[in-house]
Predict the 3D structure of the following.
Amino acid sequence: MPEKYRAPVILCYLQNKTNEEAARQLHWPVGTVKTRLSKARELLGQWLRRRGVVLSTATLASILMPPTSQAVIPAGTLSATLKAAMLVPAGSSGAAAISVRSLLLMEGALHAMFWTKIKIVTAVVLLAGVTGSGVAMFSYYSWGAEVQPVVGDLELQAAQNDLAFAEWQRRLAETSFELADDRLEAAKKRVEEIKRRLPAQAPADPKDPVAFIFDMPITRQQLADYLIAQYGADKIELLVNKLIIERACRDKGITVSDAEIDAAMKEDMQAMACTDLKAFDDVIKKYHKSLSEWREDVVKSRLCMNKLARMRVAVSEEDIRSAFEGAYGEKVECGIIYCPKGEEKGAIAALGLFRAGPQELQNYAKDQFVNNLGAGEVKLQLIGRHTTGDESFENTVFGLKPEQTARIENKEGTMIVKCVGRIPPETSVKLEDVRAKLTEQVLAKKTHQEIPKLFEELRKQAQPRLLLKK
């Protein structure tokens, strides 16, 4: 739209100036302002019609005219709408960015909303949000730079224009996100409603054949009876647990997609150093699982429990600071050997050998124990605060000086610990630089700790009674 038509549109329709006020600011006669406003509406109507949106002159004028009541159309909405959709110069590349399809979609929405003023404006706002920021940016700077008078320093004025545009762009983005969220929720509700209306899948007939011998059928019931007799007692608890978890997920609206299961299967393969499914199948056979059983009984159930547990945990500021101290704070380098319950004499001997020298202890550990740090040898380990889950153990370890030893008892047995040295904190790392990473790590850790508690609660609620006995 040429400047001589655009200028009065901005002053009268965006800034709510009267024709007389616009004429004084532009140094035009009042009649010229009125004539060019009329021509501007005509040009805008032509621009819309070329893109498939037909608006009568009266309808277009009713949209553009300032509202008689401030409650009809908010000034900010009208301003953003006109800046994004009206003030694009005719024939510019920015105008072409608004596709015919988008305009036709807008037209359909307008018909559905009975062509009321506020709904027309809302539809155009949506159009502006869909077509991107290029048109809006061009238009905003056009009216801001060419019509508004420059006040004071030019650099300051340009910075203020940038700030105003950024604020406008943010409001537009927030509106678009809110509308997208509303549409997403509506789509989810519609899917669930359709699912509820669908007829339930009929259970398979126990008399249906699964095989034939001598032209005689072997029925599903016969196969079920065979499998129950052979494996029922071993599999019933697994099935019960699986159904308990599925019921909890259904109550919470939690689903696990095939893509999520596939991704988790790949992670398991990598963790077990398997390059293909055949190698992975060979590994999981040690756990008496087939690939399908691992996928359904292990991976899917694990993902379901993870989602259920994550809903119950939260990460506090104290959690993040504790994780930061554990990862980047002071650490104690220790040699540790674990003596199982009932090996108290061995623990006393290991303590003496710890004090004697490393080689004697290594030989003793190799002959006597399988320690928790590696079969047949004592390895060094870095202990940080808030990393072991045992505050008493950490306090004892941090109380040791280099070359000092300690004997720590717990319900599983005895640990013999020797302090090798102390590692100072990493002062170059700042909390804010690693906050996001630590938050995710703490959330994963707390979720993992919550799963056993949650599963115990689900079992108590379900009150399972297993009738098949091994």
